[in-house]
Design goal:
Number of helices: 3
Protein name: Integrase catalytic domain-containing protein
Radius of gyration: 18 Å
Pfam families: rve_2
Amino acid sequence: MPYYYVATKRDNQDKAIAEAVFKTLKTKFILDEQLASQEALDLGLFDYVKWYNNVRIPGSLDYQTPAEYKKNRAVHAAS
């Protein structure tokens, strides 16, 4: 018997987030780079994700890096 999958509203939100992440990776990282090997891709992707999570300063997070925002949120939640 075939398996039928019924998508929920949450699944659509998850899919939209994943698609946004892959679009960002393609436009900001992959298309701008000429990669010679799988190892170069792996290292470049690691560096990009590290920059994205720790250096980038988006306005939506009160102009803090994601790491700073998460740390400050945890401090405020504990107090």
